[in-house]
From TrEMBL:
HAMAP family: Arg_tRNA_synth. Monomer. CDD domains: Anticodon_Ia_Arg, ArgRS_core. This is Arginine--tRNA ligase. Coiled coil: none annotated. A motif ('HIGH' region) lies at residues 126-136. The gene is argS.
Length: 589
């Protein structure tokens, strides 16, 4: 079905037409519509327009009221203050718009973005042969939500997981495995993800100990790095074994996060090796990069060290080796020219902002990025402990991501179990819902905070049934499903002829904002706005429950049906919105 024009947009169109008629020289006059406590909407900006036209603002506002077309949409327009317009829409318009949304299936009337293109998003970047820790959480969770939202609004999205799978440490690991060939053998076939990583951790520690204590082994390991870079078949085969072992682990962690990671989307640092030499040549020939003390560097007027001297982006080291910049610039070339992307997004820690600023500027100077192709870092802050300091174990070590997720699931399962008897959940349902609630709690705590801000990881708060938590939203959804099950023969049905109570109007108007909100989130890449919308929706629902009983013999049948319609559409909106954040909504809790 066609998308549904929101009430906000419809009112805006009517007011803009009235303003243009009142001020012909300002045909594009914008009423600057916003939600208001005094009415459904308030139009501002008339003061500025009146000043520009040398007109009395209150007289201009009165003229607009006379010219605005109601057409069954606008119930009342009131001039207030020096020239503000308070606009109230009709109950019928609210119900009819919501009915159109309800009839649009899973899309709920949400339009596709008019300027949809192709976005490559770089997120969830673990390192081969290393365990994932709490620092990997935000890139994965934020990136996955942005992917879901962009795809829902019509963008073609190419996922890229830029795993760390290259570097000098692999020479050490590979040489050790050659000399200890049975270290990664597994009795009984395949191993679980955590066991695979345990094996790699043990191998890394043993190889590091030998590297530090045996000069002859150190020499052999460094020679092995050269073999790896040169493409030696035996070396590459063993390197691939490390990568494959690590992927078993990565995928097990992402599965626990309830997140899909597809193998073709995993393109690590090694995937751009064949491009590095050409990238350097292109930059040097174009004059974008220059040789300085043997290294290939790009300089910037606004990037200087403590001594006041320029700090360059080093693309190629003086010994001929390539740094991260060469790989990142090669990735940009591949994503722009091979994948035909017009937007590149990098969900990366804010502490790498300077690096990406320099990389993006270098790519712009080289002509790989331009007005039609942009790159943006979606920088995120740090996960903090309850003490406000970077999240660490009691021993001061980085928290393993699997441990954090397991604890969240255990806490959430306990919360679910407390209420399980009231709704008759089986043990299987308790376990399944405990996972959904626990993982949802972790994701929502991250996504409900602006990405650029640090946030405190507090599991007690995350799994609370009160406040701005995913559990509160999941219980709101489950409560609606319970009401729908108890409705008997009564079915959700819209009745536009009915007068709406204040709480019904507030809930309906908020539901109608869903489409506009999603387009804004897709454009700004800020999933915390969607989380805030969903929390407000659940809050409106709570007020609605307090003031408007849904199933009551005292209500006329059409009132029951209309209220069932409102809560059903609320449930569908909660379900869709939470899914876009990567969070499940169990039917019973």
């Amino acid at each position: 079905m066609a998308s549904v024009t929101s009430l906000t947009a419809s009112v805006h169109q009517r007011l803009a037409a009235a303003l243009s008629a009142a001020l012909p020289e300002n045909a594009d006059a914008d009423p600057l519509l916003r939600r208001s406590d005094r009415a459904d909407f308030q139009a501002n900006g008339i003061l500025a327009l009146a000043k520009k036209a040398k007109a009395n603002p209150r007289e201009l506002a009165t003229t607009v009221v006379e010219r605005v077309e109601n057409g069954g949409l606008i119930k009342d327009v009131e001039v207030s203050g020096p020239g503000f317009l308070n606009i109230t829409v009709t109950d019928r318009a609210i119900t009819e718009n919501l009915a159109a949304r309800a009839a649009d299936g899973e899309r709920l009337g949400v339009p596709y973005a008019q300027d949809a293109g192709t976005t490559v998003i770089d997120y969830a970047q673990p390192n081969v042969a290393k365990e994932m820790h709490v620092g990997h959480l935000r890139s994965a969770v934020i990136g996955d939500a942005v992917v879901q939202i962009l795809e829902f609004t019509g963008e073609t999205v190419v996922r890229r997981h830029h795993i760390g799978d290259w570097g000098t440490q692999f020479g050490m690991l590979i040489q050790y495995l050659i000399e200890h060939p049975h270290e990664l053998d597994h009795e009984g076939g395949e191993v679980s993800g955590e066991e695979a990583m345990s094996n790699l951790n043990r191998l890394y520690k043993d190889s590091r100990a030998l590297f530090d204590s045996d000069e002859e082994f150190k020499t052999r390991a460094r020679r092995r790095v050269v073999d790896l870079q040169a493409g030696d078949a035996e070396t590459l085969a063993l390197w691939q074994k490390f990568v494959d072992e690590s992927k078993i682990y990565f995928y097990s962690v992402f599965d626990k996060l309830d997140m899909e990671i597809r193998d073709p989307d995993v393109v690590g640092e090694s995937g751009y090796n064949d491009m590095l030499e050409e990238t350097c040549r292109l930059l040097e020939e174009s004059g974008v990069a220059v040789r300085s003390e043997g290294a290939l560097c790009v300089f910037f007027d606004d990037v200087k060290g403590p001594d006041g001297k320029p700090v360059p982006l080093i693309v190629q080291k003086s010994d001929g080796g390539y740094g991260y910049a060469a790989t990142d610039l090669s990735a940009i070339r591949d994503r722009v020219f091979s994948l035909k992307a017009d937007t590149l997004l990098y969900v990366v820690d804010a502490r790498q902002s300077l690096h990406f600023k320099m990389v993006f500027e270098t790519a712009r100077r080289a002509g790989w990025l331009n007005d039609g192709t942009k790159a943006e870092q979606l920088a995120f802050g740090t996960v903090l402990g309850k003490d406000g300091k970077p999240f660490k174990t009691r021993e001061g070590e980085t928290v393993r991501l699997v441990d954090l997720l397991d604890e969240a699931i255990d806490r959430a399962t306990a919360v679910v179990r407390e209420k399980a008897g009231k709704v008759g959940l089986s043990e299987e349902e308790i376990v399944e819902n405990g996972r959904y609630v626990g993982i949802g709690a972790v994701k929502y705590a991250d996504l409900s905070t602006s990405a650029v801000r640090d946030y405190k990881f507090d599991l007690d708060q995350m799994v609370s049934l009160n406040g701005d938590t995913s559990v509160y939203l999941q219980y709101a959804y489950a409560r609606i499903q319970s009401i729908l099950r108890k409705a008997g023969d009564a079915r959700p049905a819209a009745h536009p002829e009915l007068e709406l109570a204040p709480a019904e109007r507030a809930l309906g108007l908020h539901l109608d904002q869903f489409g506009e909100l999603l387009l804004d989130v897709a454009q700004s890449h800020e999933p915390h706005k969607l989380a805030a919308y969903l929390y407000q929706l659940a809050s409106h629902l709570t007020t609605f429950y307090d003031q408007c009983q849904v199933l009551s013999d005292a209500n006329a049948p059409e009132v029951v049906e209309n209220r069932l319609f409102l809560v059903d559409l609320t449930a569908r909106t909660l379900h869709r919105g939470m899914a876009l954040l990567g969070i499940r909504t169990p039917e019973r809790l």
